[in-house]
Amino acid sequence: MCGRYASSRAPEDLAGLFQARLEPREELAPSWNVAPTDPVWAVLERPDRDTGEPARRLRTLRWGLVPSWSKDPGAAARMINARMETVHEKPAFRRAFTRRRCLLPADGFYEWQAVPATATAKAYKQPYFIAPEDSSVMAMAGLYEFWRDPSVTDEDDPAAWLATATVITTEAADAAGRIHPRMPLALDPDDYDAWLDPAHQDVDALRALLHTPAGGRLEVRAVSTAVNSVRNNGPHLLDPAPA
After folding, report:
1. Catalytic residue among 45, 102, 111, 145
2. 234 burial via Cβ count (<10 Å: 0-12, 13-18, 19+)
3. Which residues are bridge partners to 142 per DSSP?
4. Which residues sit opposite 130 in a β-bridge?
5. Which range is the signal sequence, renumbered to this chain (predicted)?
6. How far apart are alpha carbons 235 and 36 in whole angstroms?
7. Using CA atoms, how far apart are residues 206 and 210, in angstroms rounded to an integer?
8. Is-catalytic flag, 2?
9. Structural contact between residues 60 and 37, judged by C-beta atoms closer than 8 angstroms
10. I want to staple 184 with a disulfide (CB 3.0 to 4.6 A). Which of 24, 64, 127, 140 is the partner?
């Protein structure tokens, strides 16, 4: 699974990297402890209001997908991940899989291993930070949806719409698999265009884009247990744990 990640790059850098237009009103501080229901950066393609042509944008979404047919947004905290093996079949994700795909940029992600108690120490969960060996951006494959809030009568009011996203996960590559059996699936740069194209709706072809993340070239390091609390944030969370 993916339940926490880091995303610290400046939006201007992300916009350039993904050749996306940065929405002028979008702001989001860097975070080294992104948690479910937080706002996150996403790269997606939507028709331009003036020309009708697809335009690639960098904008914020809330992490935790709310299907358009949901009665309320309460399901978001449970839908932070979608399994690659079944994402095209599940009612909550299958429509978004064919029409609303995105990339969620990350520096890397966290996973945990339980450490049992000893005679002198309590049991705890040891966090690990997992990231590409070359420090490149992880473009995590994602889906997004729009949910209409019925309590807001004017549909042109920005508050009438909640835009949310989920991270697609897969079986972990060797390095990450020693920590946890699942991990977010990061796309190869050569596949960005096909993944983001809303006109591309061939399910089998889309599923073929979902393969070994980062070619399995991942670095894993133990980090401080400070990341275990969502209240903590800052680059120090990536420092190696004391021996």
Report:
1. 111
2. middle
3. 102, 167
4. 109, 220
5. none
6. 19
7. 7
8. yes
9. no
10. 140
**pLDDT tens, position by position, 31-50:** 999 999 999 999 999 988 77
> Cα(111)–Cα(177) distance, rounded to whole angstroms?
10
Other C-beta atoms within 10 Å of 32: how many?
Answer: 22
Per the CB < 8 A criterion, the answer to whether 42 and 58 are in contact is yes
What DSSP string runs through the chain?
----EEE-S-HHHHHHHTT-EEPTT-----EEEE-TTSEEEEEEEEE-TTT-SEEEEEEEEEES---TT-SSGGGGGG-SEEETTTTTTSTTTHHHHHH-EEEEEESEEEEEEEE---SSS--EEEEEEEEETT---EEEEEEEEEEE-TT---TTSGGGEEEEEEEEEEEPPHHHHTT-SEEEPBPPGGGHHHHH-TT---HHHHHHT--SGGGG-EEEEEB-GGGGSTT--SGGGGSBPP-
Tell me how far CA of residue 119 lies from CA of 113, 122, 127, 207, in angstroms: 19, 8, 22, 49
For the entire predicted model, the pTM comes to 0.93
